[in-house]
Amino acid sequence: MNWSELSQLLPVGVVLLTALVVVAIDLFVKPNDRFVLPWIGVAGCGIALAMALKTNTAPWFAGSHEDGAKALILGGAFSIDGFGLGIWVVACLAGALSLISSAHHEEESTLSAGEFIGLILLAVTGMMLLAVSHDFLTLLISLEIMSISTYILTGSNRHESRSNEAALKYLVLGAFGTAFLLMGIAFFYGGTGSLDMSEIVSGQIGKMGQASQVNPTFVLLGMGLIFVGALFKIGAAPFHFWIPDVYQGAPVSVTGLMAVGVKAAGFAVVGRLFFETFASSEFSSLWLPAIEVAAVATMIVGNILAMTQSSVKRMLAYSGIAHTGYLMLGLLIAPNSKDVAEHLHSINFYLLVYGVMTLGAFGVLGLLRANGRPIESMDDFAGLAKEHTGIALCMAIFMLSLAGMPPLGGSFSKFMIFKGAIKEGHVLAAVIGILTSVASLYYYLRVVVKMFMSPANDAVKGGDEATQCQYAWATNLLIYATGIVTLILGMMPGLVF
Amino acid sequence: MSDLAFIVAAVVCVLSAGLIVSRKNPVYSVVFMLPFFLGMTTIFVLLNATFLASIQMIVYGGAILVVFLFVIMLINLRPEELREDFSMLSWFISALAAGLLAATMALFANRGTTNDMEVKFASAIATREHGAIFGSIESIAYPLFEKQMIPFELASVLIVVATLGAVLLSKKRV
């Protein structure tokens, strides 16, 4: 055990410690003072974010780089590298923003309880660990830390049947996905005798089959099962069925965390598996076509089903599936190519932009009330611009940015992904991506049209309640801030890209 | 000496197994599982499988037994309710299944291990890390506290998650 190595995990430690502190403080504060708890969590995420930004960035994936061994810490259990750090930033951001948007649910006491905030922070801990784990056992445990917290958070609205249903569905289907992953890991271990994720990168499996005790059949079988499990977790077609119900049933702040954080962590796993573990050309010739087919299917399924939705929350869930498809286009590159770093960089940037705009949109959904319930259906948005012009403007920014309209953040990130895919010769997939994102304008614009051009109906009047709510200023601030950041990221992407 | 211990343990096992299936009251059945587990533990110790023995005691004797007991007490079964569908046919089928199992085991009991296999097994044991014997507590402990210590420690975070979740999902509104 080496302290200087362990200290590189300090951002994760900060989030974990904050979670425990919040739970402990919850026992002593009076119910009226509970409002401090989310803010402690936000502070923890903020500190972790700052620390993650300050950490020296190693090459994008340690195993695929010559001086990558430096990034490996604690006997190869973790690899602190560029992609992982990028995911840390996204996860901390998702955690902080969903804590802010949960802060004004003061009146619903289960939501502001210390356990709820503690579980959000623990889910963020799991995401951060997942992003850097470099050992299948660490990966599995981190995945479970993240998944089990989100299962519980999904069902935290105990008195609503939809939330319960979503939690049960998520638990069963999530366990199903984990089972695939675990079976794959078992085959991988059986085939190679090692749990290290960069174990077989060094040699070609055909050669290794003769030279050592590696069993190629088991490794390939393991790769297939791990592939299925990973697609399950990021919600790619044909394993996307759980997403709409779960996103709709979960409390809004949790949905934001799931849509952004869980997806980012899932992509970290997928990236590390494909660009580090199964990086040799024998594997990549198998998984590249599979990813391409899955990406195209995901984009088509997500966008088409999103068009038919009347609930905005459900529409955002399907649009999240579509965005998973776009992100998967970024994975379409041979791992030994020199452009890998650029591709991973654009995936990371995409996740960041997607995170900002999606969390903003879910912030709007969480803030406004219609008929005493959180705003949800398209009709609830009718005439919103008249009463809450600023919020409607921000929502329009989020929607157009999600569709990829310039000059907003979503356009530049999409451009980078499509450019990369075309450069690698996956023209058809990129064209389908562009066409589906044009088609996606239909359902994103529907919300904008409703807000600005439909007459207000009585339902939205209830919106006043929420804006007058005690801590709604925080969510308001969040919405405006994410709106402005979405604009800035589109006009000056060079700031972070 | 070890032969005597084996005979005692085996007799305890068989007797308590018989008592488990023949009691009217399911609570008695569960209680008779305890001597059964104790007997099994003794047999595992005699086979030098110390880790399996301790797990048998902790997991089965500790956790699973209590869970069984809880379930039976929760559903509050009365013996007379249970007796009715416990017909002669089911006695017959269980006896047949048990007889078949015993016959199969008797057939294969002496075929399983040859001298050659035992030699191979012994050499495999000898080459283990840290000289720990296969199946012993040491051979489990070294990977757990050295090589895979990080995931092992992270499992504690997982338990915190489970605890918080249980509180969140079952707490009364305050």
Give a quick account of the main beta sheet of chain A: strands, pairing sense, barrel closure: 2 strands, antiparallel
Please report the distance between the alpha carbons of the first and last residues of chain B: 62 Å
Q: What's the gyration radius of chain B in Å?
A: 22 Å
The residue fraction in helices of chain B comes out at: over 70%
Report the strand count of chain B.
0
Taken as a percent bin, the fraction of beta residues of chain A is under 5%
Instruction: Give me the strand/helix succession of chain A.
Output: HHHEEHHHHHHHHHHHHEEHHHHHHH
Q: Quick check: average pLDDT of chain B?
A: 80
**What percent strand of chain B?**
under 5%
Number of strands of chain A: 4
Note the main attributes of this structure.
heterodimer, A: 497 residues, mainly alpha, two-stranded antiparallel ribbon, 4 strands, 2% strand, globular, B: 174 residues, 9 helices, 0% strand
Task: Give a verbal description of the structure.
- The complex is a heterodimer of chains A (497) and B (174).
- With 497 residues, chain A is mostly helical.
- Chain A has a domain at 281-334 and 337-497.
- In chain A, 72% of the residues lie in helices and 2% in strands.
- Chain A contains 22 helices and 4 strands.
- In chain A, the strands form 2 sheets. A two-stranded antiparallel sheet of chain A has the order 1-2. Chain A has a two-stranded antiparallel sheet with strand order 3-4.
- In chain A, helix 6 (114-132) runs parallel beside helix 12.
- The longest helix of chain A has 32 residues, at 161-192.
- The two termini of chain A are 35 Å apart.
- Chain B is mostly helical and 174 residues long.
- Chain B has a domain at 116-174.
- Chain B has helices at 2-22, 26-31, 33-46, 50-75, 79-83, 88-108, 115-126, 137-147, 149-170.
- In chain B, helix 1 (2-22) packs antiparallel against helix 3 (33-46) and helix 3 (33-46) packs antiparallel against helix 4.
- Chain B is flat.
- The chains are: A mainly alpha (497), B mainly alpha (174).
